[in-house]
Amino acid sequence: MAATIQTLVSEGQTLLFGEHLNASKPKSYILSKDANDFWSYDYLLFSMSSFSTPARVCLFIMLLLLPFAATYIITSLLFKATRWSNVRGRRAPLVPYSIPVVGHAMAFAFSVADLIQDNLHLCANELDNYSPIRFKGMNVELSFISGPKNVFSLFRQSRKFSAKASVVIAIDRLFGTPKHLVPSFYDHDDTGYDGKPDSGSRDVAPHLRIHHTVHVQVIKYLSGSGLKPMTNKLMENIAKTMLSSGIGGVWLEMEDLFDFCKSKLLHASINSMFGEYLTALHPDFVDDYWKFDDCTTTLVKGFPSFMVPRSWAARRKCLDSLKHWKAYVEKLVDADGRTFYEGLDPHFGSQFIRQRHEGFNKMEPMNADSIASEDLAIMWAANSNAIPAAYWFLYEIFRDPELLGRGTVDDPHPLNQFWAERFLLKTGSDHSGPLLQSYRKKHVDIPATTRPELPVRVDSAMEDSAVQPEVKYSTNGLAGAWVPYGGGQSLCPGRHYAKQEMLMTFAIMSTCFDIEILQEPGEVTLPDLGYFGLGVLPPKNKTRCRIRRRTFRKDSVVE
């Protein structure tokens, strides 16, 4: 039989594989061109013996790749059909993918920025200008929305959004709150941010409304008159930290300007918001914090501790320090007996942090571990975006002497323009949150539980919102093109603190120091897109510079 098969193969006859239906025992068969001729054999792979090894390898690879190719072809056809459809209420087209079931999950894990950038061209078509598109993971679905008009329309319906899901993911994955509290406490509270619980929400005791409590405290103390004591202290601490950094009147070369900025600014910010006991009790806390911050891109993906032990250890060290600080400070508070200090607090550093702790202490599910996670969360929110933004502010101005001259004139507009540009060019954040209700844009429905993603880098400033250089600074006509802090109910409440930190840093550094960026012609510092989705992007490469302190008259105010 084998000889017959070999003869058929050598003669180029067509062979079909199947099963002999009339056999008492099921056996495989080969059918030749003559439909009446059958040859039985016990295993299908027997026929493979007549092929050469390279041919068998190629056939195996083809069979292996077949499910992926079929998945990509099918999803591509579905994407085109949905994209060009005029049916009202249709879903946003799903971007083609090749891995069955998994979808875009692997791309999420490696680089969300590359995934979005590679598919940004799919947002525009002849029927719907900047139409939404969807990405699908194993257990998550993202709708990507671009174009100023679409973004502006989305924020006008901001009450359909909730940032709760993002908060729950962050407090769990990034900041390490005890696992049992995530479903039973944070996720259980669906009452919203407003004073009145959302209609249809669960019956949650007023003092256990964690999302509302945090939101109210942030609004009260990080904006308006409540912010002033903290920003005054911040400016004092930035000046004190920078002027006591050991930099004299002789040029001092530095390997990285960002390392210098993030160390000094974080120390000043922590002492302004949390008081001086934290860094006094734990002198290495600033370094520990930045080690944790370096791991956020890994932690946010939810990898378990055995896969990324260093990341978990870096976070654990910060949390342990915060727990120790809280216990120490509360002993001082008990010994003091005073319940309120106007503006700044001698123990907790600020009324903001003290009121947060008093609110958390009234919540029965909260414990020392969960409160430490909340402390780490607010510290990250206040610094891990503002400090990289302050660095970009300094880098762009000091690398261009002409720009520096414009920024120091007695005119507020250049500073505001520089500040705005840093967030336009160096931000890689996603905004808004899962939908509470379905949202429709140009016949496309984005259903509830879907997470809309908005581009907030220069990609979102499309052609119809472009402005000419050297015109008077204004935000007119840019609605929907520049959304560095989100919008609607998800508008970042700490934006005023961040802006003050940026402007104070520039004012002090440009007044007290000379800085020269030591880069070759054409060399630039690039943002690290690995942090895309977490806010302002830190620099990817180091920025060599040299710095010296300016000298002033003895009667100078600066001295």
Automatic annotation (TrEMBL):
SUPFAM superfamilies, per the entry: Cytochrome P450
Database matches in InterPro entries: CYP450_sterol_14alpha_dmase, Cyt_P450_E_grp-IV, Cyt_P450_sf
Keyword Membrane tagged: yes
GO molecular function terms listed in the Swiss-Prot or TrEMBL record: heme binding; iron ion binding; oxidoreductase activity, acting on paired donors, with incorporation or reduction of molecular oxygen; steroid hydroxylase activity
Membrane-spanning residues: 54-74
Keyword Heme included in the entry's annotation: yes
Coiled coil (UniProt feature): none
Keywords (A to Z) from UniProt: Heme, Iron, Membrane, Metal-binding, Transmembrane, Transmembrane helix
Family of the protein in this entry: Belongs to the cytochrome P450 family.
Cited PANTHER family: 24-HYDROXYCHOLESTEROL 7-ALPHA-HYDROXYLASE (PTHR24304:SF2), CYTOCHROME P450 FAMILY 7 (PTHR24304)
This protein's name: Cytochrome P450
Species: Aureobasidium pullulans
Record lineage: Eukaryota, Fungi, Dikarya, Ascomycota, Pezizomycotina
